[in-house]
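COURSE: Structural Biology Practicum
ASSIGNMENT: Worksheet 4, Part C
STUDENT ID: 0417
INSTRUCTIONS: Below are two proteins. For each, the amino acid sequence is given first, followed by its structure token string. Answer the questions at the end about the second protein only.

PROTEIN I
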Amino acid sequence: MLVTQSVSPMNNLPNMLSVLEEESNVDIDDVFPPHVDTTNIVIHPESPTSKKQALKTFNEVNVLLQAGRKREVKLIIRDNAWPLNNGIRAQLWPALCNQHTHGKNMLDGFYWDMVNQVFGTTEEECYHCMASLVAAKEKMFITQTKLLYEVTWKTVEQITRKHVKSAAVHLARHCSGSRAERIYMDWIWWILQLLPFQHLVRVMDCFLHEGIKVFYRVAMAIVLLFYKHSSPQNSEWMNEISKNGIDAALSKFCRQIPVTPAKFLRTAFGVRALTSVYISRVFLRTEMALKSRSVLTGSRSLARSRSTDNLPTSQSQVNIQMMSHTLTIREKECEDTYKDRGAHSPGPRALSMGVYPIQSIHSQILDMPDLFTLWSWLPVRITMYQPILLYTTEEHGCSLTTFYVRVEQHEPTLLMIKTCNNEVFGAYCSTRWCERNLKDDKGQRQAYFGTGETFLFSLYPERAKYPWVGMDSSHNDPRVHHSAELFMAADAKMITIGGGEGQAIWMDENIRFGKTDRCSTFNNPPLCASGDFEIRVLEVYGFAGA
């Protein structure tokens, strides 16, 4: 989302912040620099929600910010419509941005000392505010890539179709062809470029505290209000649609929106059942779908420009199949030898043509020697594909819902776990996690899924690979009992890998606690000494093009 590229009055906000004074209502011409045209800026009177309440001061809001009482701050900001000539925003907006700062202060260092001396604090504070929003971890404010911009407008489209369905249908009815979908591409400019300035300032009050979900709600409010004012056949806005088309009519409606800023925000925040969790789920699902599409349908020239790092050539695949067959036989013989000695792990396979993709991995769990060992245990055809980090608790949080959204469409996947006791183990999962939702002929959901290519591994304190016990015999051999074919299982509350007389790896819905036992499927010992473990880091990798 290219917020900073708007040609709206947003470009003048740093100048506005530098001249506003705390809590004082002054003449509008004294608030803005001389080059700002203030003729169309309307000053609304003070308007807290309750007539008996006075507008909150910055000091009152800041006390709540410092105490971490974010919900109270959210309600105050939504309810207090400070006039444009009130000086509170000179301090409020930087404070709202700074609350999202993580790590080292952006203003530390010689460069900003020099900037402060030469230019004063305006550029410095503006940069710091933007950097805080970009780096925020708990909420999203600004997206920075073309892909994520596409994700945002598709997210707006999806939540609009679900939560203000009649308005979305009305919009689609007056669009021609594919424009019904792509009209949402301009959603951010409805807000930042077209809304009246007094409406935009109130939106920004909320946005700087609550994040991009405010923009989503505001976009839905625009569509909903446009529907209410243009659905009557003899209405002014229906005539505008008939005369100039839906795009021009919607743009004009945003400029002349016929409600006050207060009613506009009430409409936006009045959309029910639209939670942050739901928005995040839609966003992540859309992001993963678009990433998968780019992998599957990306241009040939683009793929070739990156050499052969992503996908092997057809001749390479022939060579891989031949080598895979040979190495499988050798590994089988090696495993038999090791099992005769009472061990489970084959020696690492000689490094071959399938090693080079791991050079791009920057794992928080494994160093390069461990990665080499792990890669030597993977099916050879898989080692030729570029690994992609799909999910990590360090970046994406500890949520099974997020795990499924980011991982479930990929096959195969590699799970790596580091416990709080520094044990390292995991599993190669041969099947997509979305198969947890498949049903059998009787309409019942399958408890377990997966194939015999799935295996477990341990890298610290011991190195060992635990393949499926069925590798020792024919798959139809009656000695391979059903309890030894329980590879993967999952639902909304847990993830399980390996079953039968125990679970090799089990993780809870918060991806925080787990347990490990011996299981019949892999004939493994518990992968950590205590059997129970607390997860420090979980990383899940997929393979581009596999």
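PROTEIN II
(use this one for the questions)
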Amino acid sequence: MAQTKAGPTVTVAAVEDEPGRTTEAVRDAALLDDMSYGAATMSPYSDDPATGQAELADAPAPQGFWRTPSIYVLLVFFILFTIAFGGTIAPKINLSLALICREHFAEDGLVGSLGDIDSQCHIPEIHAAASRLNMWIGIITGLCAALVAPHIGSLADRYGRTRMMALAAFGPFIGDSIWIYAGQSANVHNYWLLLVAAACDGATGSFLTVVAVSNSYSSDCTPHEKRARVFALFHGLLFVGNSVGPTLASYMVDRFDNLLAFFYLAVAMQGCFILGALLVIPESLTKASQLHARELHRLKHQFAGQQSALRRVAGALNVFAPLRVLWPKEGFHLDLKRNILALSVMDALVIGNGMGEFAAGLMYAEYAFDWGSVETGYYMTWIGIIRVVNLFVVLPAAIQFIRRKVVDYRRWKGTYVPFDELVGANPSDVVLVRTSLTFNLMAYVGFAAAKTQPQFVVAGTLSALGSGSSPLLQATASKHVQKEQIGALLGAFALLHAMARVVGPTVFLLIYSATVGWFTNALFFVFLLIYSAVFLGTFLVTTDHRDDLLQESDDDSTALST
């Protein structure tokens, strides 16, 4: 595969003629360019000072095992946070429904305690109002998180991972505390406090930012050869936490007959995570590394000071700048660019559908089958278990089986090309994505046709078996760029995920609120339509590109097959 060029160098001769530029500014620009290139291409973990981190490698090692960064120390506290997050998903939907219901019947003197949802609340008017409320909660949280998350990630580079973990978790801690206050208040018109809670949650980046900073911590303290295994453990426990949480929440709601029961435990778990991040979890970045990042940040702002005010404002407001990597200007053949763009759009649609399924799908089940927090919690636990089994048992076995069959078939036809001579997607990648999407299509046919609870659960199980669609799409997209560009590519995917978190639930909750009572399962037909479009989109992905297509020209060339 073609190698990337050396990092760009800014010389005095190249910028001397620019008006308003001093000699000091020129030197700072050159230094900034060199530092930016190094920061973009070198790994945060290095065993070799020759990689450009000699000054960091020489930093004194922490004394004592209790001060040595370890992902296992992080996981002890992180699983508490995931249990708190997963366990409050269903209670938040039901508490918002209960508050709307309480206001609706207040004039009739029927206001009671916040036990599990009463059957009188399952009427179209209340569900439509609760759906709109949850839509605004998702919009506020998602928009705030999308604006704040990149800055917290940058601060984590400059001031340490553990501090920013604590900061990112503080918003959900305050938000869930407000949920408790709203539920306890005697005022029947106080559901607007849930919007304040959403703003507090998103103000520090919400759950996704905690996960992102934790991933950065894992990269810092894990050598390359062990990183895949540790990441598998990390994400496995992430799903385990999101499976245990709903079960525990269902038990507590059933035991104490109070929707707020689990919120108290969730706030306590989040508090433990914050204290653990501040006092127990060892920092993964050395002081030298933090100072290096601060100096880079200082120079970047100093260099920006040479630009016009309008250009600086436009750059600061351009939150979509990371998406440029989805259509590289140089170094990629047109077919590869089309593949990257198609895969990113398909992945965003899959993520948006998944977010919408949790938000609107659970409200549909509560309306259609008279579910409460207990039934919803057990359903989510079952779906979480199936996802864990699928991602760590079924999917790896399917990848190995399908790839072997594809290789054998192409050798029999005489069209086999070694993978190290190719760049981009190969036929087995496309087959795997289509197989996973087929489970999603079957799931939404089942959801739309489900008339009983067992049928709905079977459809949910099929949807969980299709949970590999997004990671498969991302893995396939990462094959289209060189190693040092993967981070930027996945960063663009993360931005699309944040946007999908806002758009997906908003669209499907609006559909649900508009159709509940007369065409309640309409949203599942929309799900089915979108997944059908994604499935057809896989036929736009071309395969078997020779590695000479990854060049700094767009010479005409074609894929060996599609």
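ANSWER KEY EXCERPT:
Q1: DSSP finds 19 helices and two strands in the chain.
Q2: The CA atoms of residues 71 and 218 lie 6 Å apart.
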